[in-house]
Amino acid sequence: MKLTTPQLAGLSDLGKLSVYDRPRTYRYILLALAVGLSVRLTYVFLLPNAIDLWRDGNAYDNIARNLISGVGYWDTTGEWPDEPPYADPSAPTARWLPGYPLFVAAVYLIAGESYRAVYITQALLCFAIAGFTYLCARQVLGRRAAIVALFLYALDPFSIYICGRFQTEQLFTFFVVSSAYFFLKAEEAGRRSVFFFGLMAAAGTLTRAVGGMMFLGLCLAALFGFGQGFGKDRLSGRLRKLSIASAVFILTLAPWLIRNHAVTGHFVFTTQSWQSLSMANNDSGGLYFTYEGLRALPKTNIQQSEIEREEIYKNFLINWISAHPWRFAELSLLRMAAFWLPTTHNVTGGRAMLAIAFSLSLYVFALIYMIAYRKDWPKVFPFFLAFGTFTALYGISLVTTRFRLPLYPFIEILAAGGMVYVFSMICNIYSSWRPREIQDGNQRHRLITTGKLKNPFKSPA
To answer: In the chain, how many domains are there?
Structure first.
């Protein structure tokens, strides 16, 4: 029998699992989850109960401690050596988005003010990320590819490494993957999935602002009926679901915006955007963070309010882009390309080689899937949109490897599809080379084993 390409790849479920297949599938899922969790917990328990000396992590820790002590949402770390002023230590800050500091504060309240407790919680959070990765993969590619994607995430060196760091990536990855899953389920699951899609997207936006652009892109795609999810509904149905998701999204962000207006007198989402963009786009700017780029910024001081400094950086950036439009375009394109480089900018040695090998393997198999299944691109459109959103926004800012990490579950899903396709093709080629009598004998043995064919050599009872 000649198999079709989807059957060869094993990307469709071909009906529900039989009662004989379910226990084996569950064992694979539990094995992948157990491997992923045990590796991460072992890693974080081997780390010292300390925090890396870097500005962002110390600010998150400081805000979390001030929150649980009753001081409020203040960052009192003050000025950082050889860097421009950041949060105002003499007033409540609007610079740092609240998602990760609130997460750290919650861990401190439950487990005490322990850095290792945060790392353990981030390792446990991988359990939920893995679950949503499996669900997303099963939704678009089927169970076989979903199990492979689950094992890929379990052994992801980037995810393992980031568990032991005071950085937003692990929490943000959870919100990105979960919002993508609820978007994919919105067509069949209805309003409940739409509600959680808006909620998770908003929580992700409160952790990293790029989540808001991803939500906007998915809503526009659904409005015009493109891609998987509720984009296949009628226009009235799409508008109704988009209204629910948008209302949940806005209502979730509203307290933060109202609070910032009370603190600064402006409805601002964050007071770091223009400074971050100015670090990358100036006469000494480049692809990555450099102290030369920092020294090219206009001079400000810690006594100025955050709003006042943001206005200075905004005017500086607009004037620089107006004077150097081609240089800005060149840097943006170079950063978009650098965003996807498998190399690691700040890591060297064996860890760098492992990261490069892992990334290249994922890229190759993901490319195989995208080429072999061009007609299935609408199914994985949310993944492509996330890739494009991250690439475009970080293309106008600074590039670093960790900014790409929330996208790895999506890359691993695509790579799993490519791996299943390659494996199935190899099995098909091997099967076609075997003598006909061996193929017939194997088929007869399977039928006898399953009871569909009587064994002529078995003595009657």
So the answer is: 1
Reading the block at residue 110, the tokens are: 């439950």
For 222, the enclosing helix (H) or strand (E) is helix 210-223
- Is 455 a member of any domain? no
Half-sphere exposure of 408 (CA within 13 A, CB side): 33
Q: pTM for the whole thing?
A: 0.86
135, two tokens: 């669900």
Cα–Cα–Cα angle for 296, 301, 305, nearest 5°? 120
pLDDT tens, the chain, 461 aa long: 344 444 444 444 433 444 445 667 788 889 999 999 999 999 999 999 888 877 888 999 999 999 999 899 999 888 877 788 888 888 899 999 999 999 999 999 999 889 999 999 999 999 899 999 999 999 888 888 999 999 999 999 999 999 998 999 999 999 999 999 999 888 776 788 899 999 999 999 999 999 999 999 888 888 887 766 565 667 777 888 889 999 999 999 999 999 999 988 888 999 888 988 998 898 888 888 788 888 888 888 888 888 999 999 999 999 999 999 999 999 999 999 988 988 776 667 777 888 889 999 999 999 999 998 888 888 888 888 889 999 998 888 888 888 889 999 999 999 999 999 998 888 777 766 655 444 455 555 554 455 554 444 444 44
Q: In 324-407, which residue ranges form alpha helices assigned H by DSSP?
A: 325-339, 349-372, 381-395
Domain span including residue 224: 5-433
State the CB neighbour count (10 A cutoff) for residue 378. 16
Q: Does residue 106 lie in a domain region? A: yes
